[in-house]
UniProtKB/TrEMBL annotation, chain A:
The chain crosses the membrane at residues 20-39. Keywords: Membrane, Transmembrane, Transmembrane helix. This is Uncharacterized protein.
UniProtKB/TrEMBL annotation, chain B:
The keyword Membrane applies. Its EC number is 3.4.22.70. Keywords: Hydrolase, Membrane, Transmembrane, Transmembrane helix. NCBIfam families: class_E_sortase (NF033747), sortase_fam (TIGR01076). InterPro entries: Sortase, Sortase_Class_E, Sortase_dom-sf, Sortase_E. CDD domains: Sortase_E (cd05830). It comes from Actinomadura livida. The active site is at residues 114, 182. SUPFAM superfamilies: Sortase (SSF63817). This is Sortase A. GO terms for molecular function: hydrolase activity.
Length: 59, 208
């Protein structure tokens, strides 16, 4: 997979490295700012409220 | 075949990296969100407190209600208590159960907070001993509560939030505080509850 991406990046190895770094940062940013905030409440493992019925997804 | 195996390997390593990033987000990234909200709500609350006009309006859900300090956790340990205990409220800081007593009132002032993630305000609640002070600052008074007891209960044990904890029908005569958080750490299996009672109330020095 990564070898395939590397082969399809244009330019010399310097430009390839730069593009690859940029791609990695972009993916990390999308995860951090969009995917994780959406995902975090769904897998919440820290819940401090007492309630009936037993709270499932509330903190 | 070799390509397939290599592809699988790359995928697994990627998944591992993504997972590590997610854990970092959960433990550290969420805390930065809480800190921002705390700063904003704290400033907002102090502005209201300094305004000469006193309103009798109730604090709106999601807004700052009081300041909580626990000397055992250090000088710098303080959080704005938010009105409300919904998910979004508790992300901003410890939350006051709407409908339970207000600070200093007869009845039970109940506050819930995260033990891990989102700045983990109640992380060290298990270190509290009988007699430790919980300070609640409001506009005019500082209420000094003293810890009386600690209990581990099931998540459905709503009776601890009753005006007389454990006796939902009884009429309150004392001024109490109850803190709830999750137990054990990183789990939602049980709740840790700290009980306390009002020891004294000191007029706050008017800021000039």
């Amino acid at each position: 997979m990564y070898a395939w991406i590397w082969r399809h990046l244009p330019g010399t190895w310097q430009t390839k490295t730069a593009t690859a770094l940029g791609l990695a940062i972009a993916v990390a940013a999308i995860l951090w700012y969009l995917v994780f905030p959406w995902l975090e409440p769904k897998v919440q493992f820290d819940d401090g409220v007492v309630d009936t019925p037993t709270p499932t997804a509330t903190p | 075949m070799r390509t397939l195996i290599r592809g699988m390997g790359e995928l697994t390593i990627t998944a591992g990296l993504v997972f590590m990033l997610f854990v970092t987000y959960g433990l550290w990234g969420t805390g930065r969100y809480t800190q921002d909200q705390q700063d904003r709500l704290g400033d907002e609350m102090l502005d209201t407190w300094q305004a000469s006009k006193v309103t009798t309006e109730r604090v709106k859900l999601g807004k700052g209600l009081a300041m909580i300090r626990i000397p055992r956790f250090g000088e710098d340990w303080k959080f704005v208590v938010i009105e409300g205990v919904d998910r979004d409220d508790l992300r901003k800081g410890p939350g006051h159960y709407p409908g339970t007593a207000l600070p200093g009132e007869i009845g039970n002032f109940v506050v819930s907070g995260h033990r891990t993630t989102y700045s983990a305000p109640f992380n060290r609640l298990g270190e509290l001993d009988r007699g430790d002070e919980i300070l609640i600052d409001t506009r005019e008074q500082q209420y000094v509560y003293k810890v009386t007891d600690r209990k581990i209960v099931t998540p459905a044990a709503t009776e601890v939030t009753a005006p007389v904890p454990g006796h939902p029908k009884r009429k309150p005569t004392e001024r109490l505080i109850t803190l709830t958080t999750c137990h054990p750490k990183f789990s939602a299996a049980k709740r840790m509850i700290i009980f306390g009672e009002l020891a004294s109330a000191v007029p706050r020095v008017k800021r000039t």
